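=== RUN LOG ===
request id: a7f3
mode: sequence -> structure
chains: 1
length: 92
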Amino acid sequence: MTASDREAIGLVEACREHKVSVPEDLSVIGFDNFSSSNTVPQLTTVNHPITNMGTEAARLLIRMINSKEYNPEQIWIDTDFVIRNSTAKRRK
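=== RESULT ===
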């Protein structure tokens, strides 16, 4: 698993150059669902809802500005695991 889809795409390209087959020899997972569906093989990725994250950040900022108080708040926003063709089933 890489820190971004861009890194995962680079890893897939490096695998291709070194005759390592994805996903037969190595499963690759990206993070951010940036360009996952445009790759060969299509990249399995973690999709994090950046729009929801921005909306929540703006809501918290506006509340802080209006109340003139800083009350830390932790918000959890679910991510999705999008399985595509760059991962193989677990070997036994």
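=== NOTES ===
The longest helix spans residues 50-67.
The chain has a mean pLDDT of 91.
=== END ===
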